[in-house]
Amino acid sequence: MFHKSRECHSHTHTPTERSVCVSEGKSLKDEDVLQHLPVGTTATFYFRDLGAQISWVTVFLTEYTGPLVIYLMFYFRVPFIYAPKYDFTTSKHWVVHLACMCHSFHYVKRLLETLFVHRFSHGTMPLRNIFKNCTYYWGFAAWMAYYINHPLYTPPIYGEQQIRLALIVFLFCQIGNFSIHIALRNLRPPGSKTRKIPYPTKNPFTWIFLLVSCPNYTYELGSWLGFTLMTQCLPVAFFTLVGFIQMTVWAKGKHRSYLKEFRDYPPLRSPILPFVL
């Protein structure tokens, strides 16, 4: 069985990895066995330096902890963010407090899922990804939080009705997202990298699998649309749009992978939005 060879450079103390290839193309998987490879009695192996690597769990925990802490700093109006007279004051608008609870809930949920739900098919990713991901999540969290918690923030134009509807959408999609993550987790036994076609379960939130390949992204989009409606804040809307574009790219890639791997893949499914996209 082949595994990536790991080296550690003394000047950085950062693990690096090398992938193994039987040709100058796609790397072998960790679980590939020599006897099962499409080679003859002799073969040439190529080693590709993957550079400094970091675990997926570490990246997820770092990129999700940042927004949680950063948002709370703006919510509590710590010094040097707004004018000194607003230090450690609280907003008079209840939607600001509700938004903080929803934002915090979202990232606490992500942290707990990283620790106890997700099963990663790859152990590591390039070290540079942590800087890119953290810049994205931390930067947007600061931008959103600055305006939502600003002393001059004004509530949504349609008041309580708009906020309550947005809260329902947000919570519905958060539950749906969690349900999909559980369903995907149950497809893969512990320690296995087996891939199966995901199907709806008895949980009604998973029935969207009938129409969508990546409903976790569909629900994630719905959550941020709800948060956008709740706060009526332009930076949140922009974050939702950017996230939607990125999740669409991921969903299309996953959808193509399913179609390529499974001949009996359900033909009615779309990548992220039923019948649309």
From TrEMBL:
Residue span, TECR-like N-terminal domain: 24-49
Chain ranges of the 3-oxo-5-alpha-steroid 4-dehydrogenase C-terminal domain: 124-277
GO biological process: very long-chain fatty acid biosynthetic process
Localisation per UniProt entry: Endoplasmic reticulum; Membrane
Membrane-crossing residue ranges in chain numbering: 54-76, 135-153, 165-184, 205-227, 233-251
Keyword match Disulfide bond: no
Record keywords, A-Z: Endoplasmic reticulum, Membrane, Oxidoreductase, Transmembrane, Transmembrane helix
Entry GO CC: endoplasmic reticulum; membrane
GO MF term list: oxidoreductase activity, acting on the CH-CH group of donors
Protein's membrane topology: Multi-pass membrane protein
Main localization (coarse): endoplasmic reticulum
InterPro entries: 3-oxo-5_a-steroid_4-DH_C, SRD5A/TECR, TECR-like_N
UniProt similarity note: Belongs to the steroid 5-alpha reductase family.
Protein name according to UniProt: Very-long-chain enoyl-CoA reductase
